[in-house]
Amino acid sequence: MPMSSPNRPAAGRAGTAYPSGVSGISGMFGTRIMAALATMFNFLALNLVLLIASLPVITAPAALNAAMVALDRWRGEGEDRVVREFAITLRSRPPLRTTLLTGVPLAGVVIGLTEVHHFVRGGSLTDRAYLGLGLGALVITLMALGYVFLLAARDPALPPAGLWSLCAALAIRNLLVTGPLFLIEIAGVTAITVIDPALLLLGAPLLLLQLMRLTAQVGLRRAARIQLGGAPSIDKIVVAPAALP
After folding, report:
1. In this predicted structure, what is the pLDDT of residue 25?
2. Measured between alpha carbons, how far is 106 from 49 in angstroms, rounded to an integer?
3. Could you say which of 40, 82, 103, 162 has the lowest number of CB atoms within 10 Å?
4. Are 141 and 191 in contact (CB under 8 A)?
5. Mean pLDDT of all residues belonging to the chain
6. What domain range is 68 assigned to?
7. If you count DSSP H runs as helices and E runs as strands, how many of each does the chain have, helices first?
8. CA 10 to chain centre
9. Residue 6 counted as domain residue
10. What is the reported pTM?
11. pLDDT of residue 79
């Protein structure tokens, strides 16, 4: 019969502290994994409802506005019930006004692309002049689009003409800062979705919206202390998150 060693109980007692440390570390990593999974779920869920609500093309501006509101509250305030926020915004904000605020700039992008495609095939001097004007207007509109989405989400009471002029002024003032970023983001996400349309379901539209939101915030912070041509002050819009109407 083997003799018991007096060191064995001590070893056992010392060994009991080790699993608790392991459980603490595993619990920390488990919390992080759960948080990452929750973020991924919210991202994909919000992207899915954005796509579904945009299937009738006429509702795409209102769907983009609702998605920006939910995204801004989620990333800015920690409100993670993104589908609920999306539905509340879509239901409570006036559809015609929301469509006007964000739909007109989107229509301007479509018209600009059509004009550029038309005049790029012409060889006359007039065609080249129109091509230059159309391309310039298209670039400015694309660079102002992120500001339109964010400001329309945060302050839906802004008059349409005031919102568009403010966004154009912000785009021009931040031409060399946020302008290239907006163009790279739009071109990059558009390119990858053309290459693989399945990425639309994996979050590409919402990724573009988030990138444009972050870039627009950079431009807003730079212009927060500047009054742009008599337009409404943007101090409140920069600081205040999106509010329910």
Report:
1. 62
2. 20
3. 40
4. no
5. 85
6. 15-239
7. 10, 0
8. 58
9. no
10. 0.81
11. 86
Nearest Cα neighbor of 145 from 197, 188, 185, 200 is 185
d(CA 94, CA 77): 24
Amino acid present at 56: P
* Residue 159 domain flag: yes
Instruction: Establish if 9 belongs to a structural domain.
Output: no
Query: 101 Cβ partners below 8 Å, 6+ apart?
Result: 61, 65, 148, 152, 156, 158, 160, 163
Determine the Cα–Cα distance for residues 175 and 143; give it in Å rounded to an integer.
Answer: 8
In a domain, 2, yes or no: no
Residue 233 has pLDDT above 60, yes or no: no
List, in order, residues 6 or more apart from 232 with CB less than 8 Å away: 158, 162, 166
Contacts of 75 (CB under 8 A, 6+ apart): 210, 213
Number of domains in the chain: 1
Number of CB atoms found within 10 A of residue 104's CB: 15
For residue 213, give the nearest of 64, 82, 10, 42 by alpha carbon: 64
| Degrees, nearest 5: CA angle 201-207-210 | 145
Position 236 scores a pLDDT of: 52
**pLDDT (tens digit per residue) in 133-192:** 999 999 999 999 999 999 999 999 999 999 999 999 999 999 999 999 999 999 999 999
The pLDDT value recorded for residue 12 is 44
